[in-house]
Amino acid sequence: MSLAWKLGARVPAHDYKIFKTAFVEGAHPVDGHTRRFSLVECGDWVNIIALTRDDQVVLVEQFRFGTRQVCLEIPVAWSIPARRRSPQPSASSKVKDLYWLQWNMRLS
């Protein structure tokens, strides 16, 4: 028995700039009942586990509107389409940005 649902066409919903939403109808593989599913479509990103020279993990504080809190998290870099052959250029660029930001915050 296959667990794969039979899917209908994707129907675009909203464009939120950093992600888009859509809907798709799916038929259950066993009983055939159909249901409408929500999809979130976004670009590629890279999660970065950056270490300092003394093997400490680099974390960033980021305000998150959904939780209305500042959260401590690992750095994330959006993958630039021209660099999609490898995630490393986006990750390297993000680490350089974080280093520059940290250095400049120390100077102020």
Per-chain topology:
Elements lengths: L5 E10 L3 E9 L6 E9 L2 E3 L12 E5 L4 E5 L2 E3 L9 H20 L1
Antiparallel strand pairs: 1-2, 2-3, 4-7, 5-6
Structure description:
With 108 residues, the chain is α+β, with helices and mostly antiparallel strands. It has 2 domains: 6-42; 45-107, no CATH class. The chain contains 1 helix and 7 strands, in the order E-E-E-E-E-E-E-H. It has one helix at 88-107, and strands at residues 6-15, 19-27, 34-42, 45-47, 60-64, 69-73, 76-78. The strands form 3 sheets. It has a 3-stranded antiparallel β-sheet with strand order 1-2-3, with no helix packed on it. A two-stranded antiparallel ribbon has the order 4-7. A hairpin with a 6-residue loop joins strand 2 (19-27) and strand 3. The longest helix is centred in the C-terminal third of the chain and has 20 residues, at 88-107. It is elongated and about 55 Å long. The model has no long low-confidence stretch (mean pLDDT 80).
The biggest beta sheet reads: 3 strands, antiparallel
Number of domains: 2
Give the strand line-up of the largest sheet: 1-2-3
Through-space gap between termini:
64 Å
